[in-house]
Automatic annotation (TrEMBL):
Protein family: Belongs to the TRAPP small subunits family. Sedlin subfamily.
A GO BP entry: endoplasmic reticulum to Golgi vesicle-mediated transport
Protein name: Trafficking protein particle complex subunit 2-like protein
Keyword Endoplasmic reticulum: yes
InterPro entries registered for this protein in UniProt: Longin-like_dom_sf (IPR011012), Sedlin (IPR006722), TRAPPC2L (IPR044760)
Originating species: Mesitornis unicolor
GO terms for cellular component: endoplasmic reticulum; Golgi apparatus; perinuclear region of cytoplasm
Length: 129
């Protein structure tokens, strides 16, 4: 339903800016999904790749079969990240999200408050920085 379940930014003072970036990128995700049409039904996962670059950031997208959308915003000056590394980061996010959904105490649609998910995201962010 296009509302965020989890947003994490470093440094945290830019969180509102990233909120805006994530919400605007959801329109691009929807456009890419509708352009692909029936082809995405046959795929197990859908890595959308670079949604759009800005002067400061690159925005990447990923969609699961259950239409859960992941958006990752990376600093443009980070040239060490290649496409396959971004793809593997999305897979880790997807696997961790799946673990949360398997928790019987988690209500689908609620904000994510999981220490394991936080640790996984923090380790990915430390790896990138």
């Amino acid at each position: 339903q296009n509302y965020p379940l989890y947003i994490r930014s470093v440094p945290s003072e830019n969180e509102l800016k990233f909120h805006y970036t994530v919400h605007t990128s959801l329109d691009v995700v929807d456009e890419k999904i509708s352009a692909m049409g029936k082809a995405l039904v046959d795929q197990r996962e859908l890595y959308l790749g670079l949604l759009y670059p800005t002067e400061d950031y690159k925005v990447y997208g990923y969609v699961t079969n259950s239409k859960v959308k992941f958006v990752m915003v990376v600093d443009s000056s980070n040239t060490a990240l290649r496409d396959n590394e971004i793809r593997s980061m999305f897979r880790k996010l997807h696997n961790s999200y799946t673990d949360i959904m398997c928790n019987p105490f988690y209500n689908p649609g609620d904000r994510i408050h999981s220490r394991a998910f936080d640790n996984m995201v923090n380790s990915m962010m430390m790896q990138v920085c």
